[in-house]
């Protein structure tokens, strides 16, 4: 066998990562590694050293060594070529050549070592092929995923067509004067229909519920956030075709009862405003794409508050697209900002998150819409490095952003990072520098970070991504009060606001 073992070790001979390629006892390998530092005494300047049985081929990596243990019969030229590839692989996965970083990337290094050598013999691979194998980027898997997504879309299309067919049958039955097969009702995450049936007029009226699969019990906000999409009501209608009973047995809407415990700070009437942002900005600060989507959900935990009106105040002067659910009185909302049911005698469902209002704001090339701007200025520095200056500024003074994290890509390979000035804190994880700011508000609206990376070029630091959480909303929509529908008496309510980015990139 040619190659016995490959090891990343310290100058004192401590093995950090070692891969054995031939059958040999652990004690024998440890003995060979322990003998290596003793053979290095005397200030040797060679790249190999031999004993009676084995040859050590090594290359310094800062304070570490990349060491190959081979048989004396192996070709020294091939050993040196293999050593060069090993020495390039280690910096590929270790951003810093330190003991902690090598041990942190131990599994990736072992996988890469196995791609270079098999059963003691060098494989005909280069660095790019090793990287591809370790990442396990499979073309067959991509094809499988594409086929599966196509099948899922086709199944969804068939369900929508079936839903439309059932709706047409119900409308035709209503025109003929026949009793309707279904009765409109609220459902989880929005509005839908519940299909009621009875085998005999004299049979007791019992509501039957078919348990839904786990995939249909996802949180309300996920399905209702698709603003402006077609077929939303149809999809909701399909998802509601799961309850059966007598048409006359249920006077109130039927909704899925959520078994989750209600938080202590939630009152009997709870409102949730949720906003998500997708934004792509250029390096010069121009907004290439901007889309804000929001959803207001209502949750009632006490049946005496089933018939209520939610008063919403819209102070936003921007072209905000507002859309209420079809069962909500649109005229009352348009003229008075009141969210209530068209049929006043019907209550909202209990113990269920009901989507009642959606909004959307989409624009491009409007720099005033961004909640926060991030400006990155990389410039060529001395020694083939880059001096990078990054600055953020809050653009909307009414916002308070918490846990703001700016993720900055770093160059591949063995690059050193020196941070000179910063606000908040920073950390380096893999090939990213993460700049963290606890809070950004009107009083603390700007901050900067300066650092130097060697070697690097300006393109290495893009795209930047930004994340945050916030209990303030970008759209100026607020719930001013909740009242009883019958007499207008005030109802105590609680509310929560969530605003976060799905995607925020500076490219």
Automatic annotation (TrEMBL):
A cellular component annotation (GO) from this entry: COPI vesicle coat
A GO biological process held by the record: Golgi localization
Domain MHD per the UniProt entry, residue ranges: 266-507
Chain positions covered by the region annotation Disordered: 173-236
Gene3D superfamilies from the UniProt entry: 3.30.450.60
Major localization class: cytoplasm
Compartments it resides in: Cytoplasm; Cytoplasmic vesicle, COPI-coated vesicle membrane; Golgi apparatus membrane
Membrane topology: Peripheral membrane protein
Sorted UniProt keywords: Cytoplasm, Cytoplasmic vesicle, ER-Golgi transport, Golgi apparatus, Membrane, Protein transport, Transport
Keyword presence, Ribosomal protein: no
Function comment: The coatomer is a cytosolic protein complex that binds to dilysine motifs and reversibly associates with Golgi non-clathrin-coated vesicles, which further mediate biosynthetic protein transport from the ER, via the Golgi up to the trans Golgi network. Coatomer complex is required for budding from Golgi membranes, and is essential for the retrograde Golgi-to-ER transport of dilysine-tagged proteins.
Family per similarity comment: Belongs to the adaptor complexes medium subunit family. Delta-COP subfamily.
Assembly and binders: Oligomeric complex that consists of at least the alpha, beta, beta', gamma, delta, epsilon and zeta subunits.
Name of protein: Coatomer subunit delta
Organism name: Manduca sexta (Tobacco hawkmoth)
């Amino acid at each position: 066998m040619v190659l016995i073992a490959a090891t990343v070790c310290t100058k004192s001979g401590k093995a950090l990562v070692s891969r054995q390629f031939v059958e040999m006892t652990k004690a024998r390998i440890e003995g060979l590694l322990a003998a290596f530092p003793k053979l290095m005494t005397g200030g040797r300047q060679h790249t190999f050293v031999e004993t009676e049985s084995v040859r050590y081929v090594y290359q310094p990596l800062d304070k570490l060594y990349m060491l190959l243990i081979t048989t004396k019969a192996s070709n020294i030229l091939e050993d040196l070529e293999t050593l060069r590839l090993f020495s390039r692989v280690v910096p590929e996965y270790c951003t810093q050549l330190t003991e902690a970083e090598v041990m942190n990337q131990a599994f990736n290094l072992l996988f890469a070592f196995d791609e270079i050598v098999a059963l003691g013999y060098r494989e005909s691979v280069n660095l790019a092929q090793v990287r591809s194998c370790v990442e396990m980027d499979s073309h067959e898997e991509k094809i499988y995923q594409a086929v599966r997504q196509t099948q899922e879309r086709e199944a969804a299309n068939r369900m929508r067509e079936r839903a439309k067919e059932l709706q047409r049958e119900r409308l035709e039955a209503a025109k003929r004067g026949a009793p309707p097969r279904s009765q409109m009702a609220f459902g989880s995450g929005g509005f839908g229909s519940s299909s009621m049936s009875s085998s005999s007029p004299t049979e007791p009226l019992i509501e039957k519920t078919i348990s839904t699969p786990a995939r249909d019990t996802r949180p309300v906000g996920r399905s209702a956030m698709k603003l402006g999409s077609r077929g939303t009501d149809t999809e909701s209608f399909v998802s509601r075709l799961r309850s059966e009973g007598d048409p006359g047995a249920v006077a109130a809407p039927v909704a899925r009862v959520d078994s989750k415990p209600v938080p202590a700070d939630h009152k009997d009437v709870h409102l949730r405003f949720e906003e998500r942002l997708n934004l792509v900005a250029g390096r010069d600060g121009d907004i290439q794409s901007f889309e804000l989507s929001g959803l207001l959900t209502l949750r009632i935990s006490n049946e005496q508050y089933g018939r209520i009106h939610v008063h919403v105040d819209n102070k936003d002067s921007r072209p905000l697209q507002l859309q209420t659910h079809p069962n909500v009185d649109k005229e009352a909302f348009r003229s008075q900002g009141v969210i209530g049911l068209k049929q006043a005698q019907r209550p909202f469902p209990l113990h269920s998150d009901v989507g009642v209002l959606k909004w959307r704001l989409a624009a491009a090339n409007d720099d005033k819409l961004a909640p926060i701007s991030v400006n990155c200025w990389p410039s060529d520095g001395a020694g083939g490095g880059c001096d990078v200056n990054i600055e953020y500024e809050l653009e909307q003074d009414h916002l308070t952003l918490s846990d703001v994290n700016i993720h900055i890509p770093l160059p591949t390979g063995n690059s050193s990072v020196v941070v000179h000035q910063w606000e908040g804190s920073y950390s380096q994880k893999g090939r990213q520098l993460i700049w963290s700011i606890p809070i950004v508000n009107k009083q603390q609206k700007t901050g900067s970070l300066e650092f130097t990376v060697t070697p690097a070029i300006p393109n290495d630091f893009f795209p930047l991504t930004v994340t945050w959480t916030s209990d303030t909303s970008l759209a100026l929509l607020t719930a001013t009060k909740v009242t009883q529908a019958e007499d207008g008496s005030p109802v105590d309510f609680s509310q929560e606001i969530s605003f976060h980015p799905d995607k925020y990139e500076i490219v």
